[in-house]
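Re: that chain you flagged

S.,

Sorry for the slow reply, it's been a week of failed gels. I finally had a moment to sit down with the sequence you sent. For the record, here it is as I used it:
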Amino acid sequence: MKYFADTGKLAEIEHLYSYFPMSGVTTNPSIIAQSGLPLSKAIEGILKIIGNDAIHIQVRSERAEQMIGEAKKYKAYFDLGDNYYTKIPVTEQGIKAIKMAKDAGMNVTATAIFTQQQAIVAAVAGADYVAPYVSRLDNISSHGIEVVSSIVQCIENANLPTQVLAASFKTVDQVYRVTECGAHSATVSYDILEALRKHPMTDISMEQFMKDAATCYDIEL
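Prediction finished late last night. Pasting the C-alpha cells below so you have them in one place:
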C-alpha cells in the first residue's frame, strides 16, 4: 500500500514526512484553496518537503487541449520529472485529455471517479492511477468500498497496468477496507493518516514499558 497525503497544508505535510512512510502528495483546487496559499507557492513548498516523491496536480481547464497545455505548463513551471502526475477529471473532455497526455509522455491520475466503468474507461485510455471517491459514494448510498473492490478486480481481470488510488475517506476503517480489497494506494487526509497509527492500547503498553525500564535498564544512554 502506498500512502499519499491529501492535503496542501505545508505544516501537515512536513509533520507527516517527519515519520510516516509517505509516497507523495495529491492536490486539487479545493485542497489548494484550503492551504491558504496560491498554487505557485503551495506546490513550491510541497516539493521542498517531499523531494522526488510523487506530486499530483489537478488541472482546472475544461477542454482537452487546454488541459494538456495546463499540465505541460505546470511541469515546466515547477521543473518536474517522472514524479509528476497530472490529475484529470473523467469528463468527456478529460478522457480525451488522458489519451493526449499519455501520447505526450506524461503521467496521469484520473480523478472524480464514482463508477466502475468510469475507472475502466480511464484505465483503457492510459491513466496510471484511477482515483475513486469512497466517502462521497457512501454519502449517496452507493457503497464506496464495493466500488473500489470492483474496480480493482476489473483492472486485474483485464491485465491493465493502472493502479487504484482510493480517495475521499472519513474513517480509518474505510482506509483499512480499501487496503483489504486490494487498492494499490490511498490518498488520505492529515487527521486520518495520524489516526491510522494510533491505538490506546499502544499508549498503555508504552506507559508500562517505561515504568518497568526504570527499574532494570541500567546502561547509561
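What I noticed first: The mean pLDDT is 94.

Talk soon,
D.
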